[in-house]
Amino acid sequence: MLTTIYACLFYVATVVLVVGFANRIRQFAMTPAPLKIPTMPAPTTKTGVAFRLFREVAFFESLFKANKWIWVFGWVFHMALAVVLIRHLRYFVHPVPEVLTLIQPFGVLASFAMVAGLGGLWARRFLVERIRYISRPSDHLMLALLMGIGLSGMMMKFVAHTDIVAVKAFFLGLMRFSLQPLPADPILLVHLTLVAVLMIVFPFSKLVHSAGVFFSPSRNQVDDSRERRHLAPWAAKLEADRAR
Amino acid sequence: MYIKTDPSEATQIDPLEMPALCPGAMAASTPWVASPDHQTSCGFPGELVDNWKEKAIEKMGELLTKYRSLKVYLDSCVKCGACTDKCHYFLGTGDPKNMPVARQDLLRKVYRRHFTLAGKWFPSLVGAEDLTEEVLNDWYSYFHQCSQCRRCSVFCPYGIDTAEISMAGREILDHIGKGQKYCNEIIGKVHTIGNNLGLRPNALRSTLEGLEEDIEDDTGVPVKLPLDQKGADILLVTPSADFFAEPHIDGLIGYAKVFHAAGASWTISSYASEAANFGMFIGSYENMRQISLRIRQAALDLGVKRIIFGECGHAWRVAYSFLNTLAGPFDFLDPRYPVPQHICEYTWDLIEQGKLQFDKSKNDHIRLTFHDSCNVARATRMGDKPGGQFEIPRAILRTVCNHYFDMPADTIKEATFCCGGGGGLLTDELMDLRKKGASPRMKALQTVQQEHGVTHMAAICAICKTQFSKVMPDHGFERDSILSVHQLVSNAIILEAPQDDD
Fold first, then answer.
1. pLDDT at position A206, please?
2. Domains plus CATH for chain A?
3. Could A229 and B164 be called an inter-chain contact, meaning their C-beta atoms sit closer than 8 Å?
4. The predicted structure's pLDDT at residue B499
5. Does the pLDDT value for residue B9 go beyond 80?
6. Could you tell me which CATH class the domain B18-179 is placed in?
7. Which ranges of B265-387 does DSSP label H, i.e. alpha helix?
8. ipTM given for this complex
9. What residues 230-269 of chain B have any CB closer than 8 A to a CB of chain A?
């Protein structure tokens, strides 16, 4: 019964995440950007823009310029989350490649960094008046969700081990459409439930910033407006209509 | 006259000083609403339409399909707070709705309510709200407390540009019949007469002739300011404030002297006698396009080979970033030159080629700094390298002036502050906002006044110049402490007197 419920939950969550997120990316991609609005100084080549976006995603360049506290908490959280996610790949592949085995200890360390980063970001929502003013309940809930995932995960590592071999069998089974029993371990169930909620909420929340950063015209446009004429389809149509 | 203070006595001035939050402090700051005449001249309904709620949501939906910026920016904000202390109007007023994210949220909360699942199902959870009269009043008030200077977009991890939001907000307001008088009246004048001032060709001609006489009296050199001269090589498009306001007009004299010294053939057009394009401020592609097309038409009619823009910040943004889109392609012009060029690019080219001679000592009574105009700094470029918009004006100033000092690094170049009057806010009824918004720049100026005895500040934007000459007296500076860049060029340039034929 439990196995069936969680199997369904993860199938649904995966479909919602993939379809919802793809749909959001499609919306971003299909909406034209009629004017050249890169925040200057901007790169004058596509390669330059790729570097700009890379610096933005890898180092949070603009945030670094803006505020060192938000930068340190935000950057540490995101990078740690990335390491933790990579570490979790071992529950989805068999056999486990050596690289994945090697990073396991780093993943464990990263969990502390991730929770610390989240804690810092959350504290700012209470302590800094300006950020308290702009925070809505969903902003707190999102942090609570991520914090819950991080802490429940760490509990399984450091406090009460779960039957990880069975968990892996469950997920490998899901991927092959063959249900394997999921251990009825409360902490594990909390962890998995929160992850599924996050997956479902992801495409409908501010977490779409993960796609937005790549589609932001002020960051992804090349500074070449004098050299190349940039014309959106609707603007071309407007031009043709007015010329008639 | 400025008296240099002993540095040890100098008080610590912080241009980035954080104000205490004062909710509602600026709620009453609203510009005058456009009259039906002004509205219809821009193609908008004359007054607030009966079904304004439906119309506003409908327009928002349309804009969401036409502008990727709007869609991505409304969806992507995570409320991290990076922008909260970056707006000069927030720093100057302490009103939390002048924090960029809070200003965006005025639109975002209605977007969420009507266009997102989360906002439809769980409005209070995600801060989604219906469009009410109160929200509408907030839109009108606070979207006219954004000068669209893009300072917030530099610091946002996703590059969210509040200018795009306030432009969309104003576009919606215009389409439900609640436009702003200052912008829409001016746009109407450009559509009918050709410039923001409503200056007709005859008046323009006599103004230019008067200037020619002044220059000749002053220098003994017959520097010309040609109008509507067919077959000229260069069309100069400059803000109409250059024809009458101080210190703008001294900049215009400077351009004329540079053209004269270079032996260039140039002309002003009475049909496109305006570089400014307030269509951008109200987010109207259509109005911006119509105004831009006048420049294309003037270039075709006069048969020029190049287009050069005078000193104006947002005009240079529309020119550099949008003109090719709105009124291009300009394949009928000389392909050896970028279209368009900035007067500073032109002057700097001549300086580099050694074609201009200067007597720098003519500016020795001036200890100078430079205000990077927001639109030039964060929305355009000069020259062929990123950052040329910072370096070229400074290079010109250092060529013509012996005493030049930059303001603190976090208040110039890409981090520059708006003058407080940009984005269609340069109107008297917003004077309180303008004065408060100018305070970060004024404080930055005071720091170099104390440290280096700076007496004057140069700018390359008509709005900046007008705004500063109004607000500087409040901060202990003479109103003529603001100068045009080409005014300093004009002071120092050496013109050869004509050979006497007799």
1. 96
2. 2-19+38-221 (1.20.950.20)
3. no
4. 67
5. no
6. mainly alpha
7. 285-302, 313-317, 323-327, 343-352, 374-379
8. 0.96
9. none
